[in-house]
Design a protein that fits this description.
The complex is a heterodimer of chains A (111) and B (144). Chain A is mostly helical and 111 residues long. Chain A has 6 helices and 2 strands; from the N terminus they run H-H-H-H-E-E-H-H. Helix content of chain A is 67%, strand content 5%. A two-stranded antiparallel ribbon of chain A has the order 1-2. Helices cover 29% and strands 39% of the residues of chain B. The chains are: A mainly alpha (111), B alpha+beta (144).
Chain lengths: 111, 144
Amino acid sequence: MPPDTEAVAEQVFTALADPTRRAILAALASGGPATATDLAGRLPVTRQAIAKHLALVAEAGLVMPEPGERRRVRYRLCSVPMQVAQQFLAALARDWDTPLGALTDHLDRHA
Amino acid sequence: MGFPDRIERTVEIAHPPEKVWAALTTAEGLGAWFGDEATIDLRPGGAAQMRWTAEGFTAEMRVERVEEPRVFGFTWPVYGLPEDDPRRTYVEFTLEPAGAGTRLTVVESGFAQLPEDVYHKAYDGNTEGWAKELGELAAYLDAA
């Protein structure tokens, strides 16, 4: 079975629903790759808790550990699942009702 | 399956298909109701551009189907994805005469297509090629 878009998007939304994981992903997005220790210095969360969350989001394919010595492993954000989630949001954000209303008004005005 | 691949709307318009067609397929028409400015080369493969001046946003479209005055289709990028992302959604307007007016249906599809990297991650060798071909076939059939 190919990984379906729904499953990928769901992983992203599940991760984003948790405030700590959201903070971790936001920190990686804004500051680039970081170790659990780096993140513990920036977020009000223990290093252990961050390491646990990082393992979970890495398992889900949302972040990727870079090769390195165990405690110095840096994690980087994976853009592909985020883009899949964004496609989902793009469908929800696509508004055809407003332009179709504008089309009708335009034609009525210029009849 | 809850991932919305396809968005569909139908509206009844109190004007004949020829008028609706002009509003959908001319730069003047598109610029009046859809974007703020538009250009269009109305032939399959032709380029079209829609600009929203207040938002400073421009959409680059490619005309795909022109069957006056019944079917007009184009593709455009998925909003929010990086500019170099190859994924595009397909928008098709279908115009049917309805009394003295027009029943206009718009279908936008392709929101659930997979980015290629996901395939590359999940497949090796031949299965990867198949997944890609099947994806293209599905996209083609969706669009047809």
